[in-house]
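Supplementary Note 3. Input sequence used for the single-chain structure prediction.
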Amino acid sequence: MNLQFSTACAAATLVVALGAPGLAAGESTSLIKTELQGVDGMEVNVVNFEVDGDWVTDRHVHPGHLFVYVTEGTLEVAVEGEEPRTISAGEVFYEQPDQPMVGRSASAEGAKFTVFQIGPTGEPIMVSQPE
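The predicted structure, written as discrete structure tokens, is reproduced below.
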């Protein structure tokens, strides 16, 4: 598959997965989405996000293991059943698959962060989970 086409498909998947409210105040850029050689049925997605100060996600889950590196600003991550966590620039956090959560910008100037997900091939990076 053509890398540019694959990147466009990954970005379109993110738009659908995140929903308009989350993206209205931010942008995403897919860096790579590729199957893992030697690991049947698994792929990696790496996406850069740049969000405004009022950015917030819907309640959602991630089908794969998710690692987030914050490069600017601060995020708040509220995983169901846990105390909300604040993650600042230079910090990394991990989310286990299929845990309902909400993420939001915790800084007025917004935030920039990179998401690395390792998960089942063909699954979106986020799946909405209304209560």
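The mean pLDDT is 84. Strands lie at 26-35, 42-51, 60-61, 65-79, 85-88, 92-95, 101-105, 111-120, 127-128.
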